[in-house]
Write a sequence for this structure.
């Protein structure tokens, strides 16, 4: 830099270079040679800094300090804290791969993930070797509780159902959800991203909208979507032949439509656009996670980031329009509260009144965040449940026949399934539970210790990430018996709590405790309605082109689709 001079300041101020032309006076006062260090008093240094031009102040003081602070935070979170946590766990003799910090397991993980992706597996319900292979290997080597590192983050894998229940029940408030990264929050800033009082207030408002009694009002929406699906399939299939259909995208459309219709009633067509955009956003998110994703990368103007932003803006605008219209209608007494949005707004008003607040507990932005989340949390989860059910019933035609017999007995061949009838479907329920056990849509839950806590005889410091691999618990022979990898719906004949060998439940497809899935009844009624409509009209089997490849993306999806041969009955 032309004409630059140096001055040295006493600790803690670092050395600076500044432009003499713009700061002559400040530099004259502050410049000292190494031979006269004692002549700079702290007051002089502060005065010198105060006299710098704003831009040089920024360049030579604020920016370096910010950089130093950022570097310290990175070092702290990627090295110092993880090492401390890892050492605290090792010192208690917790088994695992704790010494392979930080890249040993990452390399192993990449190798196993590549091997898992390379080829489909034989059609077996034992999917654990393919899904989360790293955790699978660690558990088989080190037991039900083990430490590992995923990159710089130490994790404790907890594979014991009793401890999983204890963590998820969170009676003492020692555990919290792992903080979402910013992208997930931007896609759906709702219940899943909240903690503490905000979560509790939102959950209290949202719960009533999903009560079984309220779902009755949404049943026509469920039925309309199921009818559309089967009518489309009937159009594909010739009357005497069989037709191959990839049911995975079909069910994604169905579940997106169901949420649009049950959330927005008459504004359904805008809802459909939202669900298209949200699906694309979910795929973009996966692309982002699969690419080299480093903190801060999301702010770069890459094509993917621009697309994500544009989508988010459009979804936001559509939702804002729908909510504003509904607010106006409610003020004029024309509000419709037969759909999720109406029920949510009604519950918001009631809770706000009860709390004696002048401002609504959930703001417009909050409501938009929750609506986005319904798509994000409710679409692919239910779509994969239906997809794996079709695959499994194709492989086990005897159960397909039993389910069809039950559906025909309850509804006949042509009658529209209703809630009373749906509640009588015992075999269908057992089948869906068994599919949720073998192919849980959410394969793993994460929690983090919020404060030092004891669990199963080990003291965990605050900040440890706990991975709860639901998929392994659901396939554990100690829990379910030697036939754990087989499809045996009859194990649920006496309900969920009697299904395993243990005397307490070990079935967590919807989570457990206070944060259990708010939409579980919604999802099950929706799945039963769709499955009943399909069983009433079609028989089905696997297509020769089907390749079994369960793969965990955000949910446990069929990597190469789910090609099913449909035949009209
Ligand atoms: C088969 C279908 C579904 C499965 C397997 C499923 C699974 C789950 C699981 C495991 C959780 C707990 C996450 C945790 O504890 O960290 C959860 C939470 C949640 N689910 Fe679902 N879900 C399904 C359908 C739905 C539907 C249809 C909706 C809404 C329309 C929905 C909305 C939510 C919401 C809002 C949460 C957050 C609850 C909270 O944090 O308080 N889910 N779901």
């Amino acid at each position: 830099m032309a004409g630059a001079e140096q001055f040295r300041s006493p600790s803690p101020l670092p050395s600076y270079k500044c432009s003499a032309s713009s700061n002559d006076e400040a530099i004259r006062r502050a410049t000292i040679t190494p031979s006269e260090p004692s002549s700079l008093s702290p007051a002089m240094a502060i005065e010198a800094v105060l006299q710098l031009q704003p831009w040089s102040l920024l360049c030579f003081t604020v920016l370096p300090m910010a950089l130093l602070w950022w570097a310290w935070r990175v070092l702290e979170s990627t090295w110092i804290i993880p090492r401390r946590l890892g050492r605290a766990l090792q010192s208690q003799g917790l088994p695992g791969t704790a010494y392979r910090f930080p890249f040993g397991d990452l390399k192993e993980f990449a190798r196993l993930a590549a091997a898992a992706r390379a080829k489909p597996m034989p059609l077996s319900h034992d999917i654990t070797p393919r899904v989360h292979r790293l955790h699978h290997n660690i558990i088989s080597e080190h037991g039900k509780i083990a430490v590992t590192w995923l990159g710089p983050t130490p994790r404790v894998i907890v594979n014991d159902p009793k401890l999983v229940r204890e963590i998820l029940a969170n009676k003492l408030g020692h555990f919290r959800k792992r903080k979402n990264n910013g992208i997930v929050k931007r896609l759906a800033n709702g219940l899943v991203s909240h903690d503490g009082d905000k979560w509790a207030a939102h959950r209290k408002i949202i719960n009533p909208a999903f009560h079984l009694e309220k779902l009755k009002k949404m049943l026509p929406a469920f039925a309309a979507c199921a009818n559309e699906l089967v009518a489309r399939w009937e159009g594909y299939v010739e009357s005497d032949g069989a037709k191959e259909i990839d049911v995975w995208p079909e069910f994604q459309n169905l579940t997106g439509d169901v949420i649009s219709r049950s959330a927005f009633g008459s504004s359904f067509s805008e809802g459909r656009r939202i669900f298209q955009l949200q699906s694309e956003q979910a795929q973009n998110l996966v692309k982002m996670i699969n690419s080299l994703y480093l903190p801060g990368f999301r702010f770069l103007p890459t094509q993917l980031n621009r697309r994500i932003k544009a989508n988010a803006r459009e979804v936001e605008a559509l939702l804002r329009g729908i909510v504003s219209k509904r607010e106006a209608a409610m003020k004029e007494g024309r509000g419709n509260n037969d759909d999720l949005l109406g029920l949510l707004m009604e519950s918001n008003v009631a809770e706000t009144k009860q709390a004696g607040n002048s401002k609504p507990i959930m703001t417009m932005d909050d409501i938009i965040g929750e609506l986005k989340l319904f798509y994000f949390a409710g679409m692919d989860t239910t779509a994969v449940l239906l997809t794996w059910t079709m695959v499994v019933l194709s492989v086990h035609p005897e159960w397909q026949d039993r389910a069809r017999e039950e559906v025909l007995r309850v509804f006949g061949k042509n009658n529209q399934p209703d809630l009373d009838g749906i509640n009588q479907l015992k075999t269908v329920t057992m089948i869906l539970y068994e599919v949720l056990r073998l192919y849980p849509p959410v394969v793993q839950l994460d929690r983090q210790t919020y404060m030092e806590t004891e669990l199963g005889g080990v003291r965990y410091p605050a900040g440890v990430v706990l991975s709860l691999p639901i998929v392994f618990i659901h396939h554990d022979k100690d829990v379910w018996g030697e036939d754990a990898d087989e499809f045996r719906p009859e194990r649920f004949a006496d309900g969920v709590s009697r299904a395993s060998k243990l005397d307490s439940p070990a079935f967590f497809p919807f989570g457990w405790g206070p944060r259990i899935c708010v939409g579980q009844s919604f999802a099950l009624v929706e799945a039963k309605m769709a499955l009943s409509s399909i069983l009433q009209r079609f028989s089905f089997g696997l297509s020769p082109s089907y390749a079994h490849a369960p793969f965990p993306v955000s949910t446990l999806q069929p990597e190469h689709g789910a090609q099913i041969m449909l035949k009209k009955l």
Q: What stands out?
A: The first strand starts at residue 4 and ends at 7.
